[in-house]
Amino acid sequence: MTAKPNRIFVSHGPGETRCALVEDETVLEAVFIRDAEAQTGAVYAGQVTERAPGSADMFVDIGIAPHGLLETKGQKFTGGQLIAVEVVASARADKGHKLKIAALPANVSKPGLIQAAPHPVLVWWKAYGHTLDEVVVERARKAMTQLLGPDATVVESAANELTFAEIDEQIDAALEATVHLPGGGRVIFESTSALTAVDIDAGSSDIAQANSEAMSAIAQHMRLRNLAGHIVVDLIHTKGKMRFVEQLKELCASDPVDTRIMGLTPSGMIDIVRQRVRPSLAETLLNDETTAYRALRLAARELVVQRTARVELKVAPHVAALLNEKLKAALTEARDVAKGEIRITPETTFAANRIEVSA
């Protein structure tokens, strides 16, 4: 089944741009561009630091923590050497950036960004421009038009009723383990460091219906959640399981990420391998950085709405530390865009995701 996305939504906030590819009112894919993080496809000048233990691969400092791992493929590098590398896969909670060697321009003499990663909106436009009706932005319409060219329809309000808030709701729902199926069944996703296990529960529907509806949900959510690596699907026991394997293959045919439906395991589970391009949606969003970026959006909006010169932003201490250190540039951007002062106050009694803004 071929996906036919017809809208792209782009929301820019301090230090972060949120992009969603949408078909009718369903979010197919979401990408978060964070200025303080290395994006897949970006090219950096970095310094070789040391050899990875028990390996010929090298750690490289590209200026954005943590250090990346470069597969040397027999090439020799020395500590302190300046080289160019491309980010093949962004850092995850338990692993650094995966890097590959790139060409170092002659005029580059110190670590830093050489070439930004391809903008996801441009990638989507090139892939789906023939089906896209419009690109909806909250602001910066002129910049988006310049990025995409004169043939793109860039607007600041959607032609249908879908809103940015409703897109956020779909993304938030994709962080939950359970997806409810139309016929009364459900699909449960559980990710570990080794694999993602997907379980199907028939609930009030019959087995064949639940398995079939689950294939549609799994194809959709592998892409939306950006699941990668080894994925196994535990079908409800029934005869003729191969028809569900074929159904899933057809549903995943339009997935731009290499997704291989390997077939059935000896125990009757569907075996899947999906290429890892960037961290999963959960790895991207379930962290203190997400709270910090949301806090900045709320504070900047309060400055503008209340037409005040100053607001106080209360957050948990570790979120405050992020805003004052790693995300300092985003804090500065929020102040500059909203034309006001944002005072960060750490509150020791606050839960990690609690935010309070007051004028």
Give your account of this protein's structure:
The chain has helices spanning 120-128, 141-148, 164-173, 207-224, 242-251, 281-285, 288-306, 317-324, 328-338; strands spanning 7-13, 16-23, 26-34, 43-51, 58-61, 68-70, 82-89, 98-102, 112-115, 134-137, 154-155, 178-180, 186-191, 196-201, 229-234, 259-264, 270-274, 310-315, 341-346, 356-358. It has 359 residues and is an alpha+beta fold. The chain folds into 4 domains: 7-32 and 118-167, Nucleotidyltransferase, domain 5, CATH 3.30.420; 43-115, Beta Barrel (OB fold (Dihydrolipoamide Acetyltransferase, E2P)), CATH 2.40.50; 174-281, Aminopeptidase (3-Layer(aba) Sandwich); 287-358, Ribonuclease E, catalytic domain (Hypothetical Protein Ychn, Chain: A, 3-Layer(aba) Sandwich). The strands form 4 sheets. It has a 6-stranded mixed beta sheet with strand order 12-13-14-15-17-16, covered by helices on one side. Strands 3-2-1-10-11 form a 5-stranded mixed beta sheet, sandwiched between helices. Strand 1 (7-13) and strand 2 (16-23) form a beta hairpin. The model has no long low-confidence stretch (mean pLDDT 93).
List the helices and strands and how they pair.
Elements: E1 7-13, E2 16-23, E3 26-34, E4 43-51, E5 58-61, E6 68-70, E7 82-89, E8 98-102, E9 112-115, H1 120-128, E10 134-137, H2 141-148, E11 154-155, H3 164-173, E12 178-180, E13 186-191, E14 196-201, H4 207-224, E15 229-234, H5 242-251, E16 259-264, E17 270-274, H6 281-285, H7 288-306, E18 310-315, H8 317-324, H9 328-338, E19 341-346, E20 356-358
Parallel strand pairs: 1-10, 6-8, 10-11, 14-15, 18-19
Antiparallel strand pairs: 1-2, 2-3, 4-5, 4-7, 4-9, 5-6, 7-8, 12-13, 13-14, 15-17, 16-17, 18-20
